[in-house]
Structure to design on (149 residues):
């Protein structure tokens, strides 16, 4: 078995869209491969996110997507690990940890001051995974959101 973590490329779009669609459905969205494909196509073309994929024998089994942010107080780049997903058939093999390790390399290679993420309180897998790879929960801050709808 040949497994590697690498940056996504345009030729991955169809396979990556299937994974991304499953990820969106995990969070309660309706299945829509066209939306998934268009969204990822834009991210790759516009280069406004970093997408890493887990490639096992030329089959994509998972991905992580990060967006650049900036910390004004630290006067530095800061990365948001917005999306992390491994196909349900492929879980338990350490792929999530390897995707996170690649994200950590991105933080170091871009001289960023850190990486943040958010997950739902009922995401048992994520809430046990993230502390196990060095993330610490920030109990000093409140998370607020505003949406126009």
């Amino acid at each position: 078995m040949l497994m590697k973590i690498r940056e996504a490329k345009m030729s991955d779009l169809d396979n990556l869209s299937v994974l991304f669609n499953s990820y969106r459905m995990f969070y309660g969205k309706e299945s829509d491969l066209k939306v998934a494909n268009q969204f990822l196509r834009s991210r790759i073309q516009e280069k406004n996110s970093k997408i890493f994929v887990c490639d096992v024998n030329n089959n994509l089994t998972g991905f992580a997507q990060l967006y650049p942010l900036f910390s004004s107080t630290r006067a530095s780049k800061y990365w948001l690990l917005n999306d992390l997903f491994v196909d349900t058939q492929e879980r338990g093999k350490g792929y999530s940890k390897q995707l996170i390790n690649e994200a950590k390399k991105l933080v170091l290679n871009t001289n960023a001051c850190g990486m943040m993420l958010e997950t739902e309180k009922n995401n048992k897998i994520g809430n046990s995974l993230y502390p196990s790879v060095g993330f610490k929960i920030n109990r000093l801050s409140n998370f607020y959101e505003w949406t126009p709808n």
